Every structure is written in C-alpha cells, then in structure tokens.
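Budget justification note: compute hours in this period were largely spent on complex prediction jobs such as the one shown. Inputs:
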Amino acid sequence: MSTTETRNANADIDQEFVASIVTKAMRAGASDAEAVYADGDEFEVEVRMGEVETLKESGSRALGLRVFIGQRTASTSTSDLSAEGIERLVSGAVALAAVTSEDPFVGLPDKEDFGAIPGDLELFHEDVYSLPAQERIEYARRAEAAALAYDARITNSKGGSFNAATGRKILANSRGFIGEYRTSYCSIAAQPIAQAPDGAMQRDYWYTDARSLRLLGSPEAVGQEAARRALRRLGARKVKTQRVPLVFAPEIAPSILSEVLHAVNGDAVYRNASFLAGKLGETIAAANITIVDDGTMPGRFGTKPFDGEGLPTRRTMVLERGVLQSYLLNTYTARKLNLRSTGNAARGLAGTPGIGAGNFYLEPGTETQQQILAAILSGLYVTELLGHGGNIVTGDYSCGASGLWIENGELAYPVEEITIAGNMKEMLHNIAAIGSDLIFYGSVACPTIRIEGMTIAGE
Amino acid sequence: MPRTVPSAQPNGTSNTTSHPANDMRATRQFFYERLGLSDRLLERCLGEALSAGGDYADLYFEYVTASSLGLDESLVKSASQGISAGCGIRVVSGERTGYAYTDDLSAERLLRAARTAAYIASGPAKQPIAGFTEAAAPSLYPIAGLSVDAEVSAKLELLQRADRAARAYDARIVQVRASFADELRRILVVASDGSFAADTQPMARCNVFVIAKDGENITRGTSGGGGRVMMNFFLTEKTPEHFAVEAARQAVLQLSAVAAPAGEMEVVLGPGWPGILLHEAVGHGLEADFNRKKTSAFAGLIGQQVASPKVTVVDNGVIPNRRGSLNVDDEGSPTQETVLIENGVLKGYLSDKLSARLMGIADTGNGRRESYQHIPMPRMTNTYMLSGEDAPEDILRSVKRGLYAVNFGGGQVDITNGKFVFSASEAYLIEDGKITAPVKNATLIGNGPEALKYVSMVGNDLALDEGVGTCGKAGQSVPVGVGMPTIKLDKMTVGGTGN
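Corresponding output:
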C-alpha cells in the first residue's frame, strides 16, 4: 500500500497558492474573482464470497475559477496545475466572461457577510487511514461473512466493502475571504442475496459510515442487518390497488423529505419551478411539522465551516409548525428574491455555485416506531423506493416501492412490484404521526413518519 | 441499483453520415506530444504493473475538454469550460482487480500508480508482450466540424433561437432555460496483451427546460438531444426550435393533465425514448458481471423464452453519430452489434474483457467506464427493439382502456429480483381505442424477466431516442442510447392516483 505517499502528494498546495490564482485573474482583467481548490484520495476494497475482488487506491486534485467582469461572469476548471494549465484556466475564464450577459444580480457576496464557523467541527479524523491494508480487507470480509453465516437462505452475495476517503477544500476570493477545511469518511457495507426454495432471489444491503474509524459500527452488525433485510423480502407478493396509511422508516423517509429540500431550493423558487414558490409565511404542512437545515452540527455529513461562497454556515428554520419560514439560498438566488443568503451555496469546481443543504432534518416526535405501527389496522411499511418520481413543480409524486404489509398493527408479509403516489402539497398536510427515532444516516434525516391518503397501485 | 437519467424525447431517427477512416495515429500523437508519453514509458508502466504477477494489466489515458453555455431568463447567465486529464492503471489476477489512478502524468507518478495497482497480485513478476498492435476500428463520428471548435457566438445563437421559439409557442410559457454542452474526449488504452487503441470521441447536446403558468397551475417541460455530431446537426437536423417547441408543448399539455390511473392495465408505449423499458427491464440484467456472479434475475436463462416471440432486442455500439456509440470501448476493444433477445429467446450477455475471460464467452466490446478514475465494467451502448409488423394506429385501436405513454423521465432496476420502474412524463388515457385526456406524471413498474412476455403487438415504426440518456451503475455514469417501435403490453402496473 502506498497510502502515505498518496496522502502527502498535495502538500505543495496551500492557501497562498489558491490566493495567487485570484491575483492572476485580477491582473488578467477580472473585476472580482474566486478560486476553489479540491483534492482527495480514496481507498476501496470489495470482497466477494470471501475473496478480494477489487482494491482501489488513488488521489486527485483540481482547481476551479470564477471571474467577474462588471456584471458578467464565467468559470473554468482544470486538473492540470502546471504553470501552463493555470495560465489557460485564467485566460479562458476572462475570455469566456466577455460573451455572457450583464446580470444585475451577479457578483460575489458583500465583504461583511464572509466568515467561517470557529472551532473544531470534527469533520476530519486522521484515523480513517490508520488501519494496515490487511485489516481493511478484513473489515470487508467480516461484514460479508457475517451476512453469509446469518441464515442458510443467504446463498450468494454482491460482496462486502470497506471504503476510506479524505478531502481538502480551499476557497479564496478577491474580496478578502480565504478558508480551508478537510473532511474524512469511512464505511463498511454488505450486500447479501437471499434465495427462496423456488429460486427467487432478493438482495438488500446495510452499512455503517462515519467521519472517524472509531465511530463506525462493527462489520458483523452490518452483515447481520443486511442479511435480515434481504431475508424479510423473500416471498414478496403484489397487493391490490388501494389507499391505506403508509409508514416510512428512518432509512427511507429522507427520500420523501428530499422532495421538500428540492422545493425550497432558491434556484427552483425564483423561477417558479417549485410547488413552494411564493408560499413564504404560509401554512404548507400540518402543525406537527418542523423542518430545520443546520450546517453547523459537529461531525455530521452536511456540516461545513463555510459555504461555497465563503459565508459561514448556519441553522435555518425552514418550516416551523407547518409554516414555511425560509428557503435555502445562495447569494445569487437571494438577490433575485430580495432576501439574504442562508449560507447554502454549494460550489463544485466547474460552473456557478448551486444550492446545497447542510444537515436537513424533520424534528422528531414522541412516538416509537412500534407505537406508530400498532395504530394501523391495514397499511404499508415502506422499506425501499425505486425510481425518482417526484415532480417538484407540481408536487406530484409517484415511485416504485417495496415493503412489508401492516396487519393489525404488526408487520405481516413482504410486498413488492407496487407504486405509491400522491401530491407533496397534500402529503405534507397528511403526516399523521412522527417518530422519536431521528437518525442521521446522511445529511438529510427524517424519523419514522406515517402519511395518509396516498395511493398504492398494484394488482 | 442501476438507474438511467434523461430529460427525454422520442421519435429520433438514426443519423447515417459516414466519416473518413478512423485515424488512431492522430490521437496517439496528441498523447505522445502533449503529455510526453512514449512506447518506452508505456512498456515500463505495464512492466511495473505486472511486477508482482497477475494475468493482465492495462493503462487508460484520458484527456477531456468540456464546455457549456446556459441561457436563462433570456440572459447568458453561465459559461464554463474545463479540462480533465489522467491515467487509470489496472492489474487483473484471476477474479481480482487492482486499480490506481493519477492526474499527474509524470513518469514518476505513473510508475507509482502502476506499483499501487500491482499490490493485488502476489507472485513472480510477469513480462508484458513486447510491442503494441493497433486495433482496427471504424469511424463512427466526425473528427472535423465539431461544436467544440465552433465559435462561442454560434452556440449562443442556438440558445437564443431556442429561447425565442419556446416563448413564441404560447403566452403561458413564463420561464425558459436553454443550455448547450459539448466535450471532446481523447483516450489511449494499452494493455499487457499487446493491444493498443486510441480514439477521439466528440459529444454535444442541446437542452431546453420551460415552465408554463396558467393562474395557479404551473407545469414544466423539457426536451433535448444530440450525440457524437457536428455543429451542423443543430442547424439542419435537430434545430433549437425543434427542442424548444417540444419542451413548450409538453409543459402546456400538462396544464390540462388529469390524474393518472392506478393499477394494472394495458399499456401502449410510443416509439423512441420509451425504449428505456428495454434498458431497465432486460439490458442491465444481461450485463455479464451480474450473470457471472449469478446475482441477476436473468442468470441461467440463456436459450429460454423470456419475452413474446415478437420481441427481438439488440445492443448496437456501431451506429454512426449516436450518443451510445463508440469506435472502441474503454478497454480498447472494437464495439459491435449484439443480439440479446431473438424472437423472445434469450441469446447472450454484454461482456468486457474480464467477464469474457472468466466466463469463456466472447468479448462483445461493452467494457466502459466513466473516466480514468473508474474501473471498466460491462455496460450498454445503444439498446433497442427491432420493428414488428403492426401499424401504430392498429395498436392503439386495439386497446379498450389503458395508458398510452410516449415520453419518459428516468428509470431504475433491481437486478436481483428483476423489478424495474420508469416514469412517464407524457402519457394519455386510451378509451375505446382512442387517445383521450393527457395524464400527470406516473411511474410504471414491472418485473424484467416477465414484462416482455406480455408484449402482444410490435409496431413497424422503430425510432431511436434523440440522444439524452445517461446510465448510472455502481456510481459510474456513461452516455447511452435506447430505441423501440410502438408496442403494446397486455399488462403493466401504472402508478397514478386516479381510478
């Protein structure tokens, strides 16, 4: 393993280097400029049926530049960090800006808005690369082995895996902002296949991920949970077309909440391409619904010290007791809507900044999942969604699903090859129960929810 | 789970322009001169890659230049360009793959990446075959007259025309966003078996997104297309007006859409992009890697009836100018036309070098990867169903009550249990053989190895899509094409909310 070599490969790049790109752009004729640098490295091992299948290890780095000439703007990016590559990055951006239109809303944020959350946000832990190679392989192997050993009906596997990655981002602009942060990530996953006596197969997966190795779950727990999930799908059947209560578990409910996230994206809002456009201050959901975006929570996957334009991240109340309080905005969309940025600019290397959430979550309720299920005579507990059936312009929602049928308050049998459909505008008013089980599997989190009035299409 | 994301469009026709013979030398020269590569260096890297043994090693060099322009609210709001270059090095030992990549193409870093990839094997060093043999390859796309070489002003003109056409279509069109994106991807693949291939692959696409508003009722429409084409394509074959009017038409149509029905019913799919059904229902399930590992619902079904006898499905990487076409795949192997299902019988899989060797089958030239940062795997190119004998109007006339779906968003499939979905973005009710009300977006769901058994009629109107598909598998995105004639499925589940 050449891990150490790879990790130190970018030691020559620092804030001064990134600031020098901004200076070069200003010298080339830009009236404002913003440079972003990102590097990262990744390690991945996949084990299948006990044998190493792939081993991947590498690093990469690249630069992005956004320039302004008055009210015109353009951007360039490159993985060629040679003097010649940087010259082309700068001259290309300045030349390209000349062909764009003057837009009064374009520009860097105001100087007084820049900043970063102070203190250690626990985003980077050196330990993700601390394991020797053989032990990393063992993690993947143990997760898969635990799944295969769990039950005789687990007959095959798409493998077990261990991943580790670190990244670094530096942002500098001509109005004096410069900032840098590092992140780390590691995960263990297993994807077993269960087989019924008639030969029908079902796969499922489970994983644990964290920013530090010491926060990871055990490979055995991952494998066993993955096996349990695959097994419970065996013998799945279709059900009739009907309307019943749907229950979304915390691992699947974030998919529903993501529809709200897309609908409060300032980019969709200012162009009226969202069912929540023009609804600020209005009641758009049941009174039990409070949704928060918080980019400052230590250690979480949606946390950053500053956003893609150099504004400090913050906690934003999006929905409070059903009333729409705020959209998620970057500088451009805020100016378009005559509002202030919420520090949600998301900046890749190429193109103009978009909008990204911090940690976007629905405030938990008080009921346990068991209590929520117990209140349902007949309904569906959704365990998987297939496809991407949300239309955020109209709010219409239609998606493939599988799950477990709820009968007299208990999970009775697996169900598949059905769809669930409704409209988000109504679904938000029809969240009849909210669980206490808020778990941050990713940067969007939602506890168990029960939604009324959706249509299941089946036989 | 593999999923395909488009912004879709049916009724495409294949472009059959021919091009001068493929000049691998020019691409090879680009890499040698621009990036300082040499036969000697490539041989040293392959030698280093096999320094711990292994059956096979290859080097994949990639140099991509990309640009995009965006017109929004009638303003040129975005303009960007980028360069991405790097090399991925792979070592295969039995079923094991070691992989490393670098975006620093100095000899030192290349050799280091080769050593990293070599850790997968553990045996005595092997020698790569001395000298390289260039693969023969067709020339399926242009090497001159590309949009990447066109003046920015010419591309902006396209966008402005799209903006005007969409707004002129109907007063209720309140937002128009048009974009033009193109790239030129140069690749060089050399392997320890002595194979050597280089290719220059253009790609261009025009896209239009609109919002229609009528009182409180707001809808969207999208349209787009392109392929491995010259600038001329957008001036003569598929003009910006074509895409703009199509996007506007869809948005306006949706203003009067009723709730889609829910439940099992007869479904007629229009020609072109609805072929995404094949991509999801059978295509992914026939990728060799899933079948080698027996994780596909299609594993072990070769020679068996998996569709109606009216169904013949092929994957074809050699159609000129198509989005999914390639002169050589990302392992340097020539692409081809592969029959997947013939008269309903399952014929074969889509393979890459690794699965061909491990399964003892031919390499169909379907080894593809997103970039130098990714390991190649079997992927589709252009997947479509051949025409049948039915007239499309007879097909519609035969339906008592059902859904006529002509345009789709994306789709997704669970390879292992075969369940797949695809979401209709333009569909109508069929009542007593007649097309009636347009319906709202709805997802259709089926079971791959079963769904095509219900195909009872196949139209004589095969069309390929307009060049919008991007397929995702194991975190890797690659451009693909699909196609289909009008077909009737006697039974499929439609995921609406209506009765």
